Amino acid sequence: MNEGYLLIDIGTGNYRVCLMDMDGKEYSLYRKDMVYEKDDLVDDATSFNHDKLLKEINDMIKVIIYENPNVLISAILSTSQRQGVVLIDSKGKAITGLPNIDSRGAKWEVTGNDFNYIYEKTGRWPRKNFSVMKLKGYQEKQPNLWKQVTAFTSISDWIGYELTGELAYEYTQASETLLFDIKKNNWSSELCNYFDIKMDLLPGLKQSGSVLGNIKNDYSKDLNLPKRTPFIIGGADTQLALKATQPDLGDVVIVSGTTTPILQIVDNYYTDTKARCWINKHIENDNFLVETNAAVTGLNYQRLKTLFFPDRSYEEMEDEALALKTPNSIASFSTAVSDKQMRLSTGGFLLEAPFNQSMRISDLVFALLFDIASNIKYHFDVLNKIIPVEKDYVIGCSGGFQSKVLPRLLADLLNKKIIIKEGYSQATLLGGVFICNETLGESNKQKQSIKVFNPSDNQHLNELYNKWLEFRNKINNI
User: In which band, very low, low, confident or very high, does the pLDDT at 22 lie, cut at 50, 70 and 90?
Assistant: First the structure.
């Protein structure tokens, strides 16, 4: 029989179950959109139905196993969106799932001197989307339900808990909670006291690549899995995507998805005195990631297509955008400015008045792609000010780099080669394959560069970027 790994990926926009071989070749993949529920009792509260999600994941696993009778599943691994949590009661049952987009904790955001104290310990801004803020909102607004909570963990680690019965918190996911001291590499009693969260709610920490345990017998039987199939701990989806690119120390990797983190790999903890970036744990235990984040990017492009081009492919849209000689529109739908720690809530298209007769719908496509590229450039420049980017290339991965236009724009705007490697479009899943291989003693083959975009001296794009920056700042009063 062939061998393969079952990989479960719960992202912000969708969740996937995939069976891949040890080189990252896909046997089967199923996906569905994430469905979120609003809680009318709490402002900006968003949750997901954990029971329904788990059932649908299990149904996908059953279909995949049925479709691939000649593939022996050697391990299962899960990864998920950062900052999300699942709450668990005294009977070991999940109570609710709170995704990264849940903002019920906005009231408890930290400012002033306490901001600096928490940033120094966690490498994070104490803002509403980080896990402890969700816990505070739940604790204060739903006290009767909070009394039932005896533990919580990340979404990816909750999957492991459901399948094995073993509860843990992986390090990269733990660093998203604001309860983890990133320099000491451990849970912080000081931070727990600050946020009034009991330490006994925190599971033990486990390293990515650890075997959490074997799949429970009832799950093995129900899902038709081999007995004693190991469950391997994955980690945060961004870190797995980065691992798939096989980067070196000092490399910068752009992970272009629903949002776009820009990450540089460093070998020691770095504190930015101006708090312009996040400092992440990497799944490689001795390394850290300095991150600026262009926030919502790919989601805007997806929604543009749904609204204006429901019957066209992305390829058709971009062929028309590439044919434009002089774009007639600028767009700004940025949602964050990391160096100013600002959220942006106003966006739009800048068009000529009266309406230009040469205007085409493809102008909107180019404008939005240029908005994404410009937003990435802005945050790349912030990162470069914090730790200079000395290499002449940047590595790109995830779905955004399927675009024909985006990597060309980035090469010119960043004045860096954009390197894209095999498996880039499913980078998070491929990163999971690499982790499984290392845990089970298999070697990872070096992935080759399949696309390289070289920068050109395009002064027009630089001028357009300055117009974009002026427009973005004006409509957001920056």
Answer: very high
The structural domains of the chain, with segments of one domain joined by +, span: 2-238, 245-415+448-478
37 strand-pairing partners: 47
Integer Cα distance of 301 and 417 in angstroms? 24
Intrachain domains 2-238 and 245-415+448-478 with the same fold: yes
Reduced to 3 states (helix: H, G, I; strand: E, B; else coil), residue 220 is: helix
**How far, CA to CA in Å, does 216 sit from each of 64, 204, 225, 226, 373?**
19, 20, 10, 11, 46
> Rounded CA gap, 302 and 368, in Å?
10
The CA distance from 84 to 86, in Å, is 7
Q: Burial-class residue 35 by CB neighbours within 10 Å (0-12, 13-18, 19+).
A: exposed
In Å, how far are 25, 40, 79, 333, 468 from 427, measured between CA atoms?
A: 12, 36, 12, 25, 30
pTM for the full predicted model = 0.92
Q: Tokens 């959490």 belong to which residue?
A: 212
pLDDT digits (tens, 9 = 90+) for 391-441: 999 999 998 999 989 999 999 999 999 999 999 999 999 999 999 999 999
For the chain, what percentages of helix, strand and coil (3-state, to nearest 5) are there? 40, 25, 35
- Angle at CA of residue 166, ends 161 and 169, nearest 5°: 70
* Cβ–Cβ under 8 Å, residues 77 and 8: yes
Backbone phi and psi for residue 342, each to the nearest 5 degrees, phi listed first: -110, 145
Sequential DSSP letters for 12-77: SSEEEEEEE-TT--EEEEEEEE---EEETTSTTEEEB-HHHHHHHHHHHHHHHHHH-TTEEEEEEE
Classify domain 2-238 at the CATH class level: alpha beta
- List the one residue out of 300, 301, 375, 366 whose CA is nearest residue 328: 366
Instruction: Read off the amino acid at residue 233.
Output: I
Judge: domain 245-415+448-478, CATH 3.30.420.40.
Answer: yes
Euclidean distance between CA atoms 281 and 299, whole angstroms: 26
Summarised one tens digit per residue, pLDDT across range 178-227 is 999 999 999 999 999 999 999 999 999 999 999 999 999 988 888 888 88
**Residue with tokens 């805007």, as numbered in its chain:** 300
Yes or no: say if 242 and 78 are a contact pair by the CB < 8 Å rule. Answer: no
* Backbone phi, psi, residue 456, to 5°: -125, 160
Q: Residue 409: which residues within 8 A CB-CB, separation 6 or more?
A: 369, 370, 373, 461
Distance, in Å, from the CA atom of 69 to the CA atom of 52, rounded to the nearest integer, reads 26
